[in-house]
Structures are given as structure tokens and as C-alpha cells.
Amino acid sequence: MPAVADGELPDGEQAATKPGEVTEVMVSAPGAPLKSALEAVLLVVDEPVSELILAQIVECPTEQVAAALTELSAEYTEQGRGFDLRRAAGGWRLYTREEYAAYVERFITDGQQARLTQAALETLAVVAYKQPVSRSRISAIRGVGVDSV
Question: Containing domain of residue 133, as a range?
Fold first, then answer.
């Protein structure tokens, strides 16, 4: 087998990576590139996840995961995506971009006008006037069980 120089492919072509750029390493799942695996995990987290935990999940070195996360964040910014990958609270998490906050707020609040039932209004009135008050005391004042309210 002929010797190949670093960064050179067996047929003589150069690898398409820039200095300092992470090459797409395949993680334990067949055909799953590192960045794609990280994106999949980050889409389902509800709080920031540390590089160490992500490295354990994708079975890659922590330094490689950190570099891939930094690259993903830069790619999202460069592409003008509606979300951003940020380091926060000792970990990484996807966030929506500030310039799209009005759209996100509209999506969340539209149709969220909940109507209170008569029972709920009565229970809230008792809480407002008698606080601090226990559930059993509210039931005694209203004369009915308030567990469902």
C-alpha cells in the first residue's frame, strides 16, 4: 500500500479541510457524522448540556466535541439561521435569535387565552381573600371538593 501524506487522500486528492477545522468524524451509529449527532441531541435537551456529557454520548474526545460545537455555532450565525447554538450555564443549548422574538412570542401566545370556569374563579377568590389557606379550608368554605380545580 503506498504511503499517503497527512491531509491527502489515497488517490492523491487533498482533504477538504481548513487548518483548525474539524473533519466530520463518524460516531458509533453507522453513517452518523459528529455534527449531525450533536445537533440531534441538542434538539431534545431542555437545559444546557456540557461538552463532557455530549462527548460521552457521541463517544468522541471532548476537545473534538468542543471544536464541533464552536463550528456549528459559527455556521448557524454565518447562515443567518433563526436559531443559535450558545454556551450557557456550563453547557450548550439551542436558542432562538433575538431578532425573531416577536414571531416566537406570537406563536406561543396565540390561542393561549384560557377561560377560567366558575369553580376556578370561586377557588381563586377564596385564595385571594383567605391566604395563606389550605386545600381543605378552601373545600370547607366552598362546600365542595376543590381537587380538580
Answer: 114-149
